[in-house]
Write a structure and sequence with these properties.
108 residues; mainly alpha
Amino acid sequence: MKALSWILAGIGVGLVTYFVLNQPEPQYATGNDDIEDAADRTALWGSKQRITGTAGGLFGKFKEGVGRAAGDDQLAGEGVADQVVGAVKDTAGSAAQSLGQTIHELNR
């Protein structure tokens, strides 16, 4: 029964990821279409990095908890490292999304 809850959680995360990455963006009348395409690609890359960073951080917390519960310091350390990598990816994604929005605003 525990496996079913993990499977449902995975399906839920997959659906949320799908809807976040495939939501239609507003189309604006802007100056240069190439610049607008670059802004869209930058924002999409940022969204993907934020999702992978958040997922990596959650998986790192899980690994750290399992490692501490089992008394395995190496696994707990790997979990902390995964959390750091996840936080860095989330921050990079956030910066990329902001950069894409700034490029869009400057291209008006």
